[in-house]
Amino acid sequence: MHFGTQKLKLKEPQRDRMRAACSFNAQVLDMVRSRLQPGVTTEEIDNWVHTYTLDHGHTPACLGYLGFPKSCCTSVNDVICHGIPGPYRLQEGDIVNIDLTSIVDGWHGDQSETFLIGEVSDEARQVTQCSFDALYAAIDALQPNCRISEIGKAIVAVARQFKFSVVQEYVGHGLGRQFHQEPSIPHYPTPESRLQRLAPGICFTIEPMINVGGRNTTLDRGDGWTVRTKDGTLSAQFEHTILMTEDGPEILTLTADGPQKGHQF
């Protein structure tokens, strides 16, 4: 992903704009949740997202972004991220990450969730649980002006408990009027993340990608977007947009019907 140089500390009116964008984005995800079942194609999911977003007067941020051809990302099984919706029909036992970003009055809301399709394997359930738990462990580690590396430390600790791996090539990011901006939010500790701090007013995503096998990835040369696990094992991801406030982190993309902190899959 390409990051802009903007590292905006939002003031209260701007924070409310972000809250509105993220609230709508969560609403879109709940709409998808209510329709998801075996036999649905990933193209249908994209059509739901596209139509619902436009019908409410907003814009799907993914469509056309750096040439991406669809309005959301649908990443099934061994696809880590950036899966392009198409004719594939979801099958009993699949896991699928649906990644949505909406532009509401010029501001971006961004989140993703991994869904279990029917009865899934223990391995599929565990990798989904690991990513979900890692996301919330990272949020719990946050406090005003903390180092960004606290996020990566928390995520790696959870992955080790499950004996899974953390993808390193793809990271969280600052968010606001731009889709991707500073700061970069790696999901493992880096020298840079140990130096950078999250001051009140900074808005960003945390989106740990967890693999059952090794952390290595491979990019589909055919479409230039789809990222898979190199060893073909399952991968899961959850993402929230977070606003750092003077009192601590505020999750802006909570859904009304989705899993909340502590959920067991």
Automatic annotation (TrEMBL):
<comment type="similarity">
    <text>Belongs to the peptidase M24A family. Methionine aminopeptidase type 1 subfamily.</text>
</comment>
<dbReference type="GO" id="GO:0070006">
    <property type="term" value="F:metalloaminopeptidase activity"/>
</dbReference>
<feature type="binding site">
    <location>
        <position position="180"/>
    </location>
    <ligand>
        <name>substrate</name>
    </ligand>
</feature>
<dbReference type="InterPro" id="IPR002467">
    <property type="entry name" value="Pept_M24A_MAP1"/>
</dbReference>
<comment type="subunit">
    <text>Monomer.</text>
</comment>
<dbReference type="GO" id="GO:0046872">
    <property type="term" value="F:metal ion binding"/>
</dbReference>
<protein>
    <recommendedName>
        <fullName>Methionine aminopeptidase</fullName>
        <ecNumber>3.4.11.18</ecNumber>
    </recommendedName>
</protein>
<keyword id="KW-0378">Hydrolase</keyword>
<comment type="function">
    <text>Removes the N-terminal methionine from nascent proteins. The N-terminal methionine is often cleaved when the second residue in the primary sequence is small and uncharged (Met-Ala-, Cys, Gly, Pro, Ser, Thr, or Val). Requires deformylation of the N(alpha)-formylated initiator methionine before it can be hydrolyzed.</text>
</comment>
<feature type="binding site">
    <location>
        <position position="239"/>
    </location>
    <ligand>
        <name>a divalent metal cation 1</name>
    </ligand>
</feature>
<feature type="binding site">
    <location>
        <position position="110"/>
    </location>
    <ligand>
        <name>a divalent metal cation 2</name>
    </ligand>
</feature>
<feature type="binding site">
    <location>
        <position position="110"/>
    </location>
    <ligand>
        <name>a divalent metal cation 1</name>
    </ligand>
</feature>
<dbReference type="InterPro" id="IPR001714">
    <property type="entry name" value="Pept_M24_MAP"/>
</dbReference>
<dbReference type="GO" id="GO:0006508">
    <property type="term" value="P:proteolysis"/>
</dbReference>
<keyword id="KW-0645">Protease</keyword>
<feature type="binding site">
    <location>
        <position position="173"/>
    </location>
    <ligand>
        <name>a divalent metal cation 2</name>
    </ligand>
</feature>
<dbReference type="GO" id="GO:0005829">
    <property type="term" value="C:cytosol"/>
</dbReference>
<dbReference type="InterPro" id="IPR000994">
    <property type="entry name" value="Pept_M24"/>
</dbReference>
<feature type="binding site">
    <location>
        <position position="239"/>
    </location>
    <ligand>
        <name>a divalent metal cation 2</name>
    </ligand>
</feature>
<dbReference type="InterPro" id="IPR036005">
    <property type="entry name" value="Creatinase/aminopeptidase-like"/>
</dbReference>
<feature type="binding site">
    <location>
        <position position="82"/>
    </location>
    <ligand>
        <name>substrate</name>
    </ligand>
</feature>
<feature type="domain" description="Peptidase M24">
    <location>
        <begin position="17"/>
        <end position="246"/>
    </location>
</feature>
<keyword id="KW-0479">Metal-binding</keyword>
<feature type="binding site">
    <location>
        <position position="99"/>
    </location>
    <ligand>
        <name>a divalent metal cation 1</name>
    </ligand>
</feature>
<dbReference type="Pfam" id="PF00557">
    <property type="entry name" value="Peptidase_M24"/>
</dbReference>
<keyword id="KW-0031">Aminopeptidase</keyword>
<dbReference type="GO" id="GO:0004239">
    <property type="term" value="F:initiator methionyl aminopeptidase activity"/>
</dbReference>
<feature type="binding site">
    <location>
        <position position="207"/>
    </location>
    <ligand>
        <name>a divalent metal cation 2</name>
    </ligand>
</feature>
